[in-house]
């Protein structure tokens, strides 16, 4: 997993990551917020993950 992070004015952080996953992945995801989401998944094969996000920090 390689990631490139760019920071601008200390408030907005832009991150771009590209990764390649080969093999078996077993994960359990739990998210608590406005609702509660619980998931269990199994992934087998070859995948390419691309993550592009913008994180804005207020205050």
- Structural class by sheet pairing and helices: mainly beta
Our count of domains comes out at 1
- SSE order in H/E notation? EEE
- Radius of gyration over C-alpha positions, nearest whole angstrom: 15 Å
What's the count of strands? 3
Terminal CA distance reads: 31 Å
Poorly predicted ranges: none
Beta-strand share of residues: over 45%
**Spatial order of the strands forming the largest sheet:** 1-2-3
What is the global morphology? flat
Please summarize the sheet with the most strands: 3 strands, antiparallel
Give the helix proportion (percent range). under 10%
Number of helices: 0
Mean pLDDT level: 56
Short description:
This protein is 0% helix and 83% strand. It has 59 residues and is an all-beta fold.
Word description of this protein:
With 59 residues, the protein is mostly beta strands. It has one domain (2-56). The chain has no helices and 3 strands. It has strands spanning 2-8, 12-32, 36-56. Strands 1-2-3 form a 3-stranded antiparallel β-sheet, with no helix packed on it. The radius of gyration is 15 Å and the shape is flat. 0% of the residues are buried.
List the helices and strands and how they pair.
Blueprint: E1 2-8, E2 12-32, E3 36-56
Antiparallel strand pairs: 1-2, 2-3
